[in-house]
Amino acid sequence: MASDISLWNTRGSDTGPGHVSSLRLGNRGLLITAAYVMCLCVWSFWTVLPERILGPLTLLLARGSYVPVIALIRIGGSDQEATAAGPTEDKTVGKRDLVGLGVLFVVLVVVSRVAPATQEVVAILLYLAMIPAGPLLFLYNAYRVLRSRVH
Questions:
Q1: SS3 of 17, please?
Q2: Cα-Cα-Cα-Cα dihedral sign, residues 140, 144, 150, 151
Q3: How many Å apart are CA 75 and CA 148, to the nearest integer?
Q4: Are 24 and 6 in contact (CB under 8 A)?
Q5: Quick count: other Cβ atoms within 10 Å of Cβ 96?
Q6: How far is residue 20's CA from residue 41's CA, in Å, rounded to a whole number?
Q7: pLDDT at residue 80 in the model
Q8: Could you give the CA distance from residue 75 to residue 146 in angstroms, rounded to a whole number?
């Protein structure tokens, strides 16, 4: 794997300056990021509200949840492998996506101002939708990574 971080997309004239196309860490970048996160965790563990430190089983489960994520990152391959496989469709966020999100926010604000009782219902539904969203996104991405390694 490459040891650089590919941040800026310089290919194509339709992407303006500052267009982020990829943030896939190589060996050195992943090691630096992991070391930084570990230092941050150790520091904050003892200095930020030490009376709220969780039990050992909870800490073990939380740290153990990192293992499958790191494993998927490691077996996911590098950007060089992906570009060598052939052209793929552009899946970056564009103006159309941002306009759609802006319209959604405007509609939600107008509805919440016109009918205030709907605010709570919408908030509760969005909160409940987030509960399965994390595991479903993880399983979907795990499936995609593993499927790309089998083929």
A1: coil
A2: positive
A3: 10
A4: yes
A5: 8
A6: 28
A7: 57
A8: 8
DSSP conformational letter for 12: S
Among residues 78, 79, 73, which one has the least CA distance to residue 33? 73
Q: Give the span between the Cα atoms of 14 and 11, in whole angstroms.
A: 9
Residue 92 CA to residue 50 CA, distance in Å, equals 41
Closest C-alpha among 74, 66, 88, 93 to residue 25: 74
In sequence order, what are the residues at sequence separation of 6 or more whose Cβ sits closer than 8 angstroms to the Cβ of residue 33? 25
Helices 66-75 and 117-150: angle between axes, nearest 10 degrees: 50
Average pLDDT, consecutive stretches of 10 residues, N- to C-terminus, the chain (151 residues): 42 51 72 90 81 84 87 73 58 82 91 85 89 92 86 70
Q: Tokens 């500052």 label which residue?
A: 18
Return the number of other C-beta atoms located less than 10 Å from residue 25's C-beta. 19
pTM given for the model: 0.49
